[in-house]
Amino acid sequence: MLITCPYCGPRDVIEFTYQGDGNRERPQPASQDLDAWNAYVYDRLNPAGDHNEIWQHSGGCRAHLRVVRNTLTHEISSVAFTRGHHKVAARHKAEGKI
Amino acid sequence: MSPRRTDAGGRIDRLRTIRFTFDGAAYTGHAGDTLASALLANGVTLFGRSFKYHRPRGVLTSGVEEPNALVTVLRGEVREPNIAATMVEIYDGLTAVSQNRFPSLAWDISAANQLGGKLLSAGFYYKTFMGPAIGPLKSTRFWMFCEHFIRRAAGLGRAGTAADTARYERMNAFCDVLVVGSGPAGLMAARAAADQGARVILSELEPRFGGSANWSAETIDGMPGADWAARAAGQLEGYDNVRLLPRTTVWGYYDGNTLAALERVTDHKERPGKGEPRHRYWIIRAKSVVLATGSFERPLVFPGNDRPGVMLAHAAERYANEYGVLPGHRIALFTNNDSAYRSALALKKAGAAIVAIVDVRPELSSEMRELADEAEAKSLAGHAVVATEGGKALSGIKVQRFDMVNGALAGDQRSIQADCLLMSGGWSPTIHLASQAGAKAEWNAARQAFLPPKPTQQWPTRRWIGAGAFTGSFSTAEAIAEGRAAGLSAAGGTGTPAALPVVEAAPGDPDPAPVFEIRADGKSFVDFQHDVTAEDVRLAHREGFISVEHLKRYTTLGMATDQGKSSNIPGLAIMAEALGKPIPEVGTTRFRPPFSAVSIGSLAAERFGDLKAERLTPMHDWHVANGATMYSAGLWYRPMIYGHPGETIEQAYVREARATRESAGIVDVSTLGKIAVQGPDAAGFLDRVYTNMFSTLAVGKARYGLMLREDGLAFDDGTTWRLGEQDFLMTTTTANAGKVMQHLEYFLDVIWPELKVHVTSVTDQWAGAAIGGPKARAILAACITGTAVDNAALPFMGIVHGKISGVPVMICRLSFSGEMAFEVYSGAGYGTHVWEALIDAGKPFGLVAYGLEALGTMRIEKGHVTGAEIDGRTTARDLHLDWMLSKKKPFIGSAMMDREGLIAPSRLELVGLISLDNQPLSGGAHIVEALDQANPHDSIGHITACCYSPALGKYIALALVKDGKARRGTRAHISDPLRNRFGPVEIVSNHFFDPDGSRMHG
């Protein structure tokens, strides 16, 4: 499986660490809603099909990526930074680095 | 001249004689022979003994699917078992031996197994050995007694024990088009793609490119198929953009069109060339894949179909045409399709007499009748072979009238003398790689075969294009057309090239009659290697193992080293008949990697031995030079003790700890995780990460911090130093350095991307030495310049900068040992320099270097927690760290930490234990309220760490005990049956020594 890191380009999956279901929403830090916390900490979606996942390029730039992966085919339809690295990536792209 | 070698023909080099041995007997063959063809040429018919019944077996096929003729190849001390003789190219000095026979291949004691055949039917082992004991001969215990004998009798070759001295290599390759298989379809595909300018890899598992063209009697473009193939391969060699990989089996198909292949580089050589590995493991990433893997001929299932001398029809044709070997002089054929007639004619032309062609079909086409006439063969349409005769070689067959509509036999049996019987039960496309690629095979009723699925059903990440017999197009003309189309399409070409090569071939209908089995008396084998008979399949059906997966496991059909390449479809067909269902409704098992056996050495390649990375601290060499016994802690190596001659480990650590408490000790703490946390929001971030406050920490001060996981359990602890308003240095435990880093990165990247904080691992940038004890400050004062270290300049948890021996250092006054102690950090490159300066300055004060054991002893005396207590199950309260849980702010884990189960009174809490019998306590031992052999008590906890305490003069331990705080002052017992240690203990506070901290505060 190849994941195309927006910084580093296409890299083999062994360079990445799976960081879990990307659909989980963390309650506000001060929230006392235990059900919401419970859902965040323990509930995971397990769809047969496209899944919104978090991966870390731990063997590379260490950025966390939001990856849409089809769990049936391992097809990856999108990869994006979880935070605003897009400007750097756009510059790298413009400079032909990736 | 060898008895079975033809006078001329074949692709062997008759001028080169090769000498080899099989079971100790010397034989000769020619360059280009396989072990199978060379032995056949020498008149050898017996190659091995079958798995269960020890029946004599010959060679069934001519290729990778061979189930019978498995041998062990010896190279010096190294033995490689279970190699198909059909895949071993002979070389001078080749030494091969047969398998699964005792005392010899010809006289095998266990062959008596076949006399009691009913005993060893499917499920024999489960029925006999597994389950409850009913009588003396039925139980799992009985199996354990018999296993040794059974394993010896039933089995394959014996693996060697000598280390494999061969070298293996791993190679990554990239290409536009990977073509798997180099028959006419594969050659055409590679050429078409290469002409488009694509980077092409063409792999072929045999030594010669050409596939069926190497042995068929067909002509292509007016020349023999083999010559055409050799010319085509030669032309491809001239392309810069083509890589040819002979002797290379593509065995795995993975995501993103990543394929795994095994190249057997030197197995066919007497000795490897300079720098050549034995095997090369290829990982090929291909933009497009062309599968041109051909097809396998299927055996027919009838009594005695496993006798040496019974062979697949095309295999015999191949032995004759490619190797110049006749598998027999009087040959009979048994078929349900037209392809066998081609084989008959080829063998006739090579010099054999064709005594009969037995065909299950009542009516033959005029073309087939003409081919039979041309082969001068007696044509027996509407007949079937019902028995074979002979011992270790075939002497004759029995045939009977056969009605293929109802499978009935009629009329008298007739005997026909023959020394070889060729069978053809139709052809199955080699769809293994397509199956691995994820799509389901489709049953084609006309071809009586599973065909690869249509492109629309392929996985998006594993797309391939098929060509030739792989797709069920069994004629060479179709293969050539499909091959070129596939190559063009794979390379993205659209050109309309010149005319296709012209094929002249014998006529033939690709569709066989739907007959798989002739039911008559005797053992009819489906899976030759695992000795699974048609009756075993029906037995499985009668006993309810009707799904394909159950059938496979119950009978072991298809589970041998050949993975059912020749047996899956006949087995399925027999089960379908028993169920009264059509074959596609019974289903088929999915093929998984590898396609054929892969050497473990090739997968490891150059990565063998100890694969663990070694992390050494900057002072490592000093420790070793000064007598340290090194201890592996995760990836790190740390001094355990600096032992004196004659000292035990306990004596050494007790001496080191005592000296530290009496004068001073120094320990290497470079392994602690160190993370620079920097940025405008750094302080706020730390408030969220730690349970206690860090935004209130003054610059130049450090604070002990505790982190929880999201679920509220304790995660890690350490000190964090505020070096500047926006600049913190976090330390973590050695073991959790990586985890904490990832934790921080995750929260900054995913949860709080708005925070302006950057985290950097600086573990390897700093060397750290902790110096502690009553004399520590005096030692430091003796060697530091640029700063004072008295209470005013350097209070507890204060940080100063200075120089030691000219090197800038950063010093924080904090304590793990409980003594007044200082952590001295310098650049990693100066670690040893600073360490030695401290050692020198400490000499007059009696400074000792101490290791992990003394460190552990002093922390147990102080009751500090480490990973042994923060074990992923304990909470801050369990560890009496609830004073660190801030109520002024939320932090990671704060919402979840007060859940019912995490504050229950019955939780395990940290306590201290004192041994009351003055004997050592043992780590991991359980704690019980009373020792009572007759009525054992439940465990109320366990020991996490233990030592002899020089400060207390007692054996002590830290333990997690149910409701531990309330039990302080009471007695309990440790119970450690594994190490036979039982004894009384007193439960006390975990703070054994200097509980108010007066020593470290000074």
From TrEMBL, chain A:
GO molecular function term, any single one: sarcosine oxidase activity
The protein's Enzyme Commission number: 1.5.3.1
Pfam families on file: SoxD (PF04267)
Catalytic class of the enzyme: oxidoreductase
Keywords: Oxidoreductase
Name used for this protein in its record: Sarcosine oxidase subunit delta
From TrEMBL, chain B:
A GO molecular function held by the record: sarcosine oxidase activity
Coiled coil spans: none
Top-level taxon of the source organism: Bacteria
Root EC class: oxidoreductase
FAD/NAD(P)-binding domain residues: 176-442
Statement: the UniProt record of this protein carries the keyword Oxidoreductase: yes
Alphabetized PANTHER family for the sequence: AMINOMETHYLTRANSFERASE, AMINOMETHYLTRANSFERASE, MITOCHONDRIAL
Name by which UniProt lists this protein: Sarcosine oxidase subunit alpha
Lineage: Bacteria, Pseudomonadati, Pseudomonadota, Alphaproteobacteria, Hyphomicrobiales
